[in-house]
Specification:
Elements (H helix, E strand, L loop, with lengths): L18 H22 L11 H10 L21 H13 L3 H30 L1 H12 L2 H5 L7 H14 L6 H17 L4 H15 L4 H11 L1 H9 L10 H8 L18 H29 L1 H17 L7 H20 L7 H6 L2 H5 L11 H36 L1
Helix pairs in contact: 1-4, 1-5, 2-3, 3-4, 4-5, 4-7, 4-18, 5-18, 7-8, 8-10, 12-13, 15-18
Length: 414
Amino acid sequence: MITPVLEQAPTGVRPAPYAPAILAAALVLRVLVTVMALLRVPPSTQVHAHSEILGIAGSLAAGHGFASPFFVDSGPTAFLSPGYPLFVAGVFRLFGLGSLALVVVVVLQILFSTLTVWLAMRLAERHFGAWTAIVAGCLCGFSLSLALMSFWVWETCLSSLLLLSLFTAMPKLRSKGQWAAAGAGTAAATLVNPALFPTLVVLAIWQARRCRMIPWIGILAFLLVYAPWPARNLGVMHAFIPFRSNFGYELWMGNHPGGDGNFHHRLDPEENAEERAQFVSLGEMGYMRMKADISRDYIRTHRAEFLRLTGRRIVRFWVADDQGMNLTGAAFSLLAFAGLALAWRFRSSLRVYAIPLVIYPLPYYVTHADGRFRHMIDPLLAILAAYAIVVPVRTIAGRLKSQRQKARTASLVA
C-alpha cells in the first residue's frame, strides 16, 4: 500500500541546486524550438495572417480602434477579449508593424513560459516536496508541445502563467489587501482569456468558504478593473457582451451539419472568403447570431450526434491532439489524474487541484477542443503527474532500504 508523505522534502535533497539547471535547459529548449519554427515560418509571413489577435492589434496600432479581427475593415469587434491584442498592439507601437515586433512578442512569450516552469516547481515543492518539484520542472520544462507554444502569437503562455499564479495565491488569501489584489488579478486574467474566469471564480469561492467570509473588497476590485470592457461593448457593439461575442461562432464550428466536432480553418472567416463576406455584410453581431441559431438548431435536432461529438471532444482535450490519439498526451493526463487521486486521498487541502481539471475544460467539451487549449492547465497536470511518479519510486526505494537494514541487522546478530 502506498502511503505518501506530503509537503515533506526528501532528506538531503533540495530543488534549489537543480532549479537553475532545469530553468536554463527549459529556456534553451524554447529558444531552439522557436528559432527552428521561425526558420520554417518567417515572422514576416505572420504579421498579416492567421491570427485574430494580430488583426485587432494591427488595427489598434494603426489608430483604427479595437476592430477588424480578420484583416478586413469590418468595424468594431468583441470577437476577442482585449488583454492580449492590447499587449501586442503596444509592442507594435514601439517596434513597428514588422518582423521585429513579432520577434519581440515571441521573446516575451518565451519568458512567460519559462516563468511558468519556475512557478510550477515552487508550487510542487510547497505541496509535495523537492523530488516532485524536480520531476514537475522536467515534465513542464522539457515538453516540446509547451515549448512550441512560445512561437505562436496567442495568449496561451501568458494565460498559463496567470492561471498558475492565481492558483498559487488563492489558498493564501486572508487580508482585505490580498483579496483586493486577487480580485484585480482575476479581472486582468479574464481580460486576457475569459476561459479562465469560471475556474478562478470557483477557486475564490473555495477559499472564501475556508475563510468563512464574503470577499466584498475582492469583488469590488474585480468589477472596477473589469467593468470598462462590457461597458465599452454596450456602447460600441450595442449589446451586453460580458466576455466575447464569438461563443455562437465557436459552438457552430464544433456543431454543424457535416461537421466532426473539430475546428477547421477552411470554415474560418480568416481563410474562407464566403464566410468573411458574410461576416462583413451581416456585421459581427448578426453573423454571431446566425451561427448561434444554426448550432442550436443542429444540437436540438441531432442530440445523439451532439453527445457523440462531445465524447470525442472530451477525449481530444485530454490527449491534447487535434487529429487523433496522442499517446504521450494521454499518458500525461492519466498520470495527472493518478496524482490527483493520491492527493485527494491523503490531504484534503490539496483537493483544490481538482477545480481547474473539472471546471476549465467544460466550454471546450461543447464547442471544439483544439490541442493547445489544454496547455493552459498543463503545468498543474505536470505537478500531479510528477507526484504520481515520485510516490511509487520513493515507496519502492524506502522498502528496499528497509530490507537492506533488516538484512544488515540480521547479519550482525548472527
